[in-house]
Amino acid sequence: MWIPVYFVLSGLVVDATSIALTQARMQAAVSDAARLVAVGYFSNEEGVSFIQNQAYSIENFTARISTSNSIVTATVTMPLADVIGLKIIARGEGVFGASAHFYTES
Amino acid sequence: MITKLRTAILRLKKNEDGWVSPFSLFFSLGLLSFGGVAYEYAETVRQKTQYQHITDAVALAAVTQLPDREAAIALGMQVAAKYFPNEETPVSVTSSDFQFGTWDEEAKAFSTTDAPATAVSVMAVRSKERKNVAYTAFRAFTQSGDHGLRARSIARVTEVPFNACARGGFISGGYLTTGSHNSFGKSFCTYGQSGMEIGNNNYYESAASLQGGRNATFSYGGSNNCGGSSVCELETPGPDDPDKRITLPYSQDYLENYLQAGNTSIFRDGNMYTIQRVSKLPKKNKLVPYTAYIVNGDAEFSSNGNYENLIVLADSGTIKAGANTTFHNVVLLADDDILFGSNTQFGDGNHCAEGRYQTYMFAEGNIELGSNNAMNAIQMAAKGTLTFGTNITAIGDIHGETWGDVIFNSNNSLDSCPDALVSDFGWAPDIQALDPFGGTRGLVM
Asked: Per the CB 3.0–4.6 Å rule, which of B218, B254, B387, B390 could disulfide with B234?
């Protein structure tokens, strides 16, 4: 009777960890991309490709880079349903993501 | 009845049926707690990483505005606000979290300073005092820790050598003032450390430079042509230290001591000069070529003379030259001023092919030249003021440096040789300063 409970609890930990890891990877990706666009190393399109290339397996990163008032903003989002894990937390609707902002130096 | 109850209690006490349920309950709580601890730790690390990214971005933005601290804070806060869209003013990063100073590359240490800063430190803080502690369910439940975190980034700009008028021109440690209807051709360079003011109807070829110190003021009149534009701009990547003086090519003192010690082989052509100590400079027809005259007091060149291959030192005096003269291969040293009249021809016109300066003037005081002079291939330096009259033509390079002002009148035409001229004194123009804000800007911590 307790086996399903343990399974659910373990699944919660696995899913939470997976979300945290994915979000950390997203944060690193948008920071790197925004910085590289800000210094002129990447175009916006190259920055978007760079972010999307950081996705693993079934993950589907939706990236966007824009510049306003000389501040480059990079955002990435992904549906919770695409999180690699046991999909106990991540079964439902919703998205999560990260963003970064760098002043244009080029 | 009592016996039955006692028997039932004893049986229940020994009975192990159903023990799995409370055990599992506590085990599950323990498992959940461990999971919670792991999650909270991961979340704290994630927040710390996120805040590090924020301080990186804010510091990199702020450093682009140095040395203007107010602009650096304003831009840094503008970037920080992007990370906290739900806050009217970011609480985690405030203007008091910016520090300005210098970065010691060897010690890997940041020091604050009131002088112009080349590095900026930015801190992001979550703390009880700021009422922005991170909500963490497990730590809130256990009342452990203060839920605070800090992240810090330091960005700096590197220094680079500043080569003002590297191939010659007019370099002023004070203000450089130009009148009207002047023409600056090719790569002719003018530099005013404190500032520059140019009049009307001046023409600067696109390669001609207008440069100034970091805080130099700049104003110009109408109808100027600066590289094809009516808008003239002053390059100001200069040194930050207003007290740092331009290093003159050779001080008059140095050359005087050199000459007084009997050294005369300062011309590249290797000609030896005979030293003569006199109380008065001989008349023009009595001057002997390849002689170094050390005059006790003022030295005067009379008008309508042709002077070549001479060294003249006015020991404790002024050098004066009348009008309608020509000078070629002459070194003039004065403890006081050097004053020239009008209609003077410097150089033989062959200086570009020869590739060297042909006339040298070094004065402890001022150097003044009158009008209608043809000034070719002259290197000069003074501690006072350089003043030039009107209608000067300089087809070849002319280079003048002063700790004071350069005053340049009207209707002058200056140009450069295809290649920079070489000084017989083995000196190349360089104001020997570092531009503290001319290098790359990036994170160091």
From this structure: B218
Mapped onto helix, strand or coil, the DSSP state of residue B91 is: coil
pTM of the model: 0.58
pLDDT digits (tens, 9 = 90+) for B384-400: 999 988 887 776 678 88
Domain ranges of chain A: 3-103
Using a CB-CB cut-off of 8 Å, the residues of chain A touching B57 are: 31, 34-35, 100-103
For B60, counting Cβ atoms within 10 Å of its Cβ (0-12 exposed, 13-18 middle, 19+ buried), the class is buried
Q: Distance between CA atoms of B343 and B403, rounded to whole angstroms?
A: 27
List the structure tokens of B321: 């030259």
Task: ipTM value, please give it.
Answer: 0.85
Tokens describing residue B233: 């701009």
pLDDT at B163: 62
The answer to whether the CB of A84 falls within 8 A of the CB of A60 is no
Per-domain boundaries in chain B: 29-161, 164-429
Q: Is B51 left (phi over 0), alpha (psi -120 to 50) or beta?
A: alpha
Of the candidates A6, A23, A73, which has its C-beta nearest B82's C-beta? A73
Q: What is the mean pLDDT of residues B29-50?
A: 80
Please enumerate residues of A whose Cβ is less than 8 A from a Cβ of B: 2, 5-6, 9, 12-13, 16-17, 20, 23-24, 27, 31, 34-35, 38, 69, 71, 73, 98-103, 105
| Whether the bond into B67 is cis, omega within 30 of 0 | yes
